[in-house]
Every structure is written in structure tokens, then in C-alpha cells.
Protein 1
Amino acid sequence: MSKPAILDHPVHALIAERWSPVGFANRSVPPAELRSLLEAARWAPSAYNEQPWAYIVATREEPEAFAQLLGCLVPGNQTWARRAPVLMIGLARTRLARNDKPNRHALHDLGQASALLSVEATARGLQVHQMGGILPGAIASAYDLPQGVEAVTALAVGYPGDPDTLPDALAARDASPRDRAPQRAFVFGAAWGKSWE
Amino acid sequence: MSKPAILDHPVHALIAERWSPVGFANRSVPPAELRSLLEAARWAPSAYNEQPWAYIVATREEPEAFAQLLGCLVPGNQTWARRAPVLMIGLARTRLARNDKPNRHALHDLGQASALLSVEATARGLQVHQMGGILPGAIASAYDLPQGVEAVTALAVGYPGDPDTLPDALAARDASPRDRAPQRAFVFGAAWGKSWE
């Protein structure tokens, strides 16, 4: 299944064809593919090149590790994410390595890394569904997170499922239209709220 | 000039060839190209599809607007960013539109939008240099930012410059090697600090 963006201006296919399925195919992702996704994250830019991102990874080939990670999602996400072949947690080091001060850009830069990971996934026929609905306290305990490390997102990774073979509820969610505000709602010129022309 | 990443695992050329120059060519960027960059940002994923990002844009074709935006960077960034043909500010709406509660993922999702913008730039022969070094107070005042909107980054956009025609200091910075920690420093399995295998 594909679900391209409805574009007002042309963009590269890797951008237009990235989307966030809830229905994944029953197909494993080779570890070498995952290494390439993580390599894309690795080369993201970051403030002071601090590279504040980290990922915890579990695949269905490791049932205990997968179950532990799945249990760190809010129940509404567990319902569909249990069918993904790969789950990850996205984490941020929130203090600067250089001076231990708060890194205001830590979550921003994790977002950049995860976005590049998702582009690399699209290039390989995979898709990534990122989630904010996680249980940070459970994650901190389960994975023994040190002070200054925050769990921020989870990521489900896999090949999009065939709507004809997905559970109806997931197929229906994946069939819903994609929606974004127009550029005039967020691209400004002389002042906030004044469209850039 | 190009400056591809030194890869441990293969990634798509648009990821490997994205980098952050300080030296830009003396060449304008057509507005239609910028619209495509912003369209890539538009289609980023976000928590609750809140799309918390916004951009303020100024080009050298608008000298007053450009000077105003340039003045919102820390002096160290002004020295090189003044030569970029396009400057932007990246902003985040830090409260959820749905219920006015804090959006923990606002900066994260701005980061995703800016990363996709930078990939689209690479696809068009452009590069983006993002900066954390901005003057948020000056920006809030200059652009009349409402409560709940934060300036987070600036972005310089343009065609990379020919090192032979750049000022020596900029050419030297652009010639410096790219550097990232290996995956074992940020990809974990059973617990924080334990490499995923």
C-alpha cells in the first residue's frame, strides 16, 4: 500500500511517499536494513554536533525484548504496534556533553534524526510510524536510563500491509485521508501570521 | 562542493549528501524552490498531527527583511550567514491546539519538519545550515510572536559555494571533516548502554 501526500508544490518521492501506517505486513526486516536506517539517523545535524539522540531496538525475532518494548507503549498504541516487526524507542540526552548544561535542542535534534531514519526507510520500501504515546517512567525503569536521558517517542518499523489482509480496523485507519494545513498557516514573512509572498 | 558522509552502512544519496555549509554561492534561490522545501516540511509527521512548526522566511531580494532576520542570529553566525541567499527562522507552537496543554513534542516535531526540508533541499542541489545560535528575545520582539510560540532555530539556505572563490576562513571550515559517533554509542538493546546486536 502507498499513500502519497497531496501536494501543493512538488517534492521528492521519498518525502511524498513517507507515511505512518498502523497496518504492517507479516514480514521481518533484515538487521542490515535496520543498520542503514540507524545510519541515516546518525548523520543528522545537531546543535554543537552533540548528537543527542539514542535508540533502543527490538525485533519480533527476540520475543522477550519485543514484549518488553511493546509494554512501554500506551495501550492504544499496543493494539496495532504489536503487529510491527520492529519497535524502537527514541531517546534524547537532555544535557550537553560539553558542559552539562541543558541542551535546548535535544528533542529537536532527536526529531531530525528520526525524520532522516524515516526517509531512509521509505527508500527501502519500509515505513515508520512514530508515536508520542509512550510510558516514560516504565521505560526509564525497564532500560535503566541514567539521569539526563529522556524517552521521547516510540517508532514502529515495517513493510506496509496489504489492506485486504489487514484487520478491518487497521485497514480503515490506513485508508483515512492525509491532512495538513496549507503553507499560509505556517510560512510567514514580515511578522508572525503575515504570509510570506 | 560536496561533502558526503563517511558511511558505516549504506544510506540513500539524499541522506549522505546532506551537509551544513558555511560558504554559499552568490546565487539566488527561486521562490518556487523554497515552496518545495517548505512543502517537504509541511508533510512531516507530528504528535496528534498538530503540525507545531512554523517558518519565517527572508531572501536577499528583500534587503530590509533579510537584514532584520540576520540581526536575530548570534554574531558568530551572522559572519557567514550574511552570505546565504535565504534565511529562515524555525519556530514551534509549544501548546496543543486541541486543549492548550504543553506539547512535549513541539520542538521534536519542528526538528522533523526541518530535516525533511533539508532533504528536499539536497534533492534540488541546495544545502541547509541549521543554527541553534539565535536571539529568541529579539525574534519575539521583531516578529511580534504570540504567547506559546518559541523561536528555536535559524536556517541558512543556498547553493554550496566553490571553495576556490569563498573567503579562506569559510573554505577552511567547509573543508573540515565530518564526524559522528559510531552506532554502538547510541543504538541499544536490552538496556541503556548495551549495544543492540
Note: The CA atoms of residues 33 and 53 of chain A lie 19 Å apart.
Protein 2
Amino acid sequence: MLQSIKISVNGQGLHDVTQAVKSVVSEQGGDGLCTLFIQHTSASLLIQENHDPSAKYDLERWLNRLVPENDSLYTHTLEGPDDMPAHIKAALTASSLSIPVVGSQLALGAWQGIFLWEHRHEVTQRKILLHYAKDSCDKV
Amino acid sequence: MLQSIKISVNGQGLHDVTQAVKSVVSEQGGDGLCTLFIQHTSASLLIQENHDPSAKYDLERWLNRLVPENDSLYTHTLEGPDDMPAHIKAALTASSLSIPVVGSQLALGAWQGIFLWEHRHEVTQRKILLHYAKDSCDKV
Amino acid sequence: MLQSIKISVNGQGLHDVTQAVKSVVSEQGGDGLCTLFIQHTSASLLIQENHDPSAKYDLERWLNRLVPENDSLYTHTLEGPDDMPAHIKAALTASSLSIPVVGSQLALGAWQGIFLWEHRHEVTQRKILLHYAKDSCDKV
């Protein structure tokens, strides 16, 4: 089963997509493996603390300090000052993530949320593909 | 097939989980795909050099230098000085890993081991989920 | 279905493997999930910009600056000055990647290519395993 999930974003930062993923999986039901794939090279996927907003805030600022805009190293500058940093950030984080499903529920740990990490300033929509393979076929 | 593996850890560093994963897979047998998922936001999964302990030692010290404790950037400090660095380290490394299985064996390269990378000082146990999907159903 | 893909490399940098992966998947046909696994600890897998060579050039130079050779931190130096940096770079990037397949085609975004990121200078060949699980069995 493959479904495309559209995520509205408003600038850099972590956008929680846990509920969007959960609702697709719970509608399908069963046990299996849910794989997320982001169809972009300047945004990424992340499993992180879902509780304290300060953790998300620090994560974002830390990565912006590690990969700043206007670094004199960049030659790829035609698409704006946030473009090359966005590609580097995407390279350092995940493009795909796989999470087991048990009894129609994502088997996330107590403090885990799933986030789309937007690395550009002015993008307003991103697309994540959700693939869900049920285990049932193993029993055939 | 889904199994939960409990890993005893004693502070920061790479904990080899290769044997624990191998024994579950070999008990199940067959060919397929083994996916590991860590249910935490301050520890991660890693495929690395399984031979020379100096590589693991350097990896740990390098990441501790890149993401030090007591950085004045952090606002998320209530859970201790190692908590925010642990979240950042987890964001830079993997939460899930998928490894093919051939003839009941993980298809790892000659020098590859699977590690749980603990990023906190005082945690004593972590949980990894192992999902194993056999290929056999493809042949139905 | 599991296939081993041999990739010729000539030193550090991004080697485009998109066509090699596409041809295996299109030969198999159908819908499902394609998982790539690299059998090395000093090279990695990456989804990145497939269009402008300057993005690849900057990515490579940025990572070489973050993880330089001859860092006095390294104790693992017997295998050459590029070995420990290569392990660190591999730890910061992906060992496995999963990409959905729709109608015999990889569901990559418009600007996404799949790359083997070689982190050593003198390696000439690498091996990627391609696992393809078709969805059809879900319908049995």
C-alpha cells in the first residue's frame, strides 16, 4: 500500500507529521512495516522528542549554526542563500525511515514523534510517500 | 515477524548488537529484509567497523567534540547537560536500518558490525525492535 | 528479490547509481519497496540533487572541511589518513535507503538522484545490495 501525504510547511523547522502517518496506518490496520520516503533534497525526515518544544528549537538552531548561509565555500548559490545549506542538512539527516506497526499502531517509543524537517525558508508544501507492507503475507 | 531486543548499556559509546540481531534472524531462517528500529530519541543505530576498537573510540570522541555538553546555544537543559547533545547526535545518525538476509544470514560486509550508539551517560537499558519480512511471499 | 550491484568508483565524491538501480527495478516490474544497503563502512548512500554539479561539489568539500584528514584527535591511523575521516562520514550519512516503487518505476522526486558517496581516495569498486519486495503478496 502506497499513499502520498501532503504536508503544509511554513519555513524552516520541525513539522510534526505523526498524526498524519498514524491515521493512514490505523485505517489500513494489521501488523507490518511502515516506510516513509521524502521526495525532496532540501527537507528530511526525523524521529525526535515530541514533548518539549525547546528541544526542537535547539535542534533547529544547532543545525543552522553548523551549516550557515553565506558560507564562502558554496559555489551553488543561484537558487538562493538557503539552498546549498538545505542540501547539506538533508544529506546529514534521513530521506527514508521505517517504523514497525503492531495492531494497527506505529511502534514508536514513548517520547518519539515523526517530523518533516524543512530546511528552506519559503517552501509551503512538501510530499512524503508512505509505504505500508503488512506481515500477513508471511503466513501464506 | 517482530521482536523486541533489550540491550544493556553502560554509558556513552558504541554497543555491538550484531550477535543479538543475527541470532533472531538465523532462528527465523530464509531470505528477506531485516529492519531495526530504535525506540529512543537519545540513542541511535549504526553500521560501522567491527574490528579495530580505536575506530569506535575516535568516532565517539569526534561526535562529542562536534556536539559538546554545556553549549550556550542550548535552552533545553532541564533533563541534564547530556540530554540536548544526545538529541542532536540522534538526529545526525540513524533511527532505523534495513539489512538484507540471505540464507538465514545478515548480508553484512566483511568489516561491518551493527551498533547501538548510546548518547547519554546514565541509561542502563535500551530497546530495539527487529522486524523481519521474508521474501517467500513474493514467490506465491 | 536480492541483487548485488557493483559500482566502479574513482576516489572521493558522489557517484550516481540511479540508472543502475532503476534498471534492476524496471526489469522486475510491479509495485513495492526497493531497499539499498551498502556493504562498506567508509562509503555511504545518499539521495541528492541530480541536476547541478555544483551542489555535489559543494557537498563534498563541505564534508571534507567538517571531517578533515590529519585531525590530532584520531588514534585510528594505521590504515591511512583518509580512513578514520571515512568512517566518521559514513556514520553521519546513510547505510541503507528505502524507496517506493510504482508501476516498475522508483518513486523519486523530480530532482532526486541516488548516489554512492565514496569517502576514500583509492578504492576502485564498491558493492550495493538491492532488495526489492513486491506488494503483490499483500493481495493474496
Note: Chain B has a mean pLDDT of 96.
